[in-house]
Amino acid sequence: MDDNRVYFIERIVAGLTYPTFGLIGFVWLILGLFTNAKLRPFMQYHIFQSIFISIALVLLGMLLEFILNILAVIPIVNIIVLNIIMFLNSPVLFNYSIIQIVIGAALLYCGITAFLGIRTYIPFVSEIIDRNVR
Asked: For position 3, what pLDDT does the model report?
């Protein structure tokens, strides 16, 4: 029997963890705890990576908000920062901003590759997850 084979339900759950920011993966972890099921490395990798990415996005947003609040006090810099923020947050395509499109495309890429049964490689994040899962 091949232990490296990825089952269809695992690919579905791994693919859905990214667009839900790790919520479905977290529920899968909780169900695994209640049923005493051992998670396979493919599932662990994608679940922990999606949770790590969602936590990183929240922390990055908080850090940027903190930095932008500090820069808003400086007289000339606040106008430049305001213009950059307005450019990045203005609706571009289907009422989505550039930031939302980039984050959505990255999550869609991760979800599709997980659904195909491939380990998604994100330069800094994947190395951390790979070291801790194996």
From this structure: 63
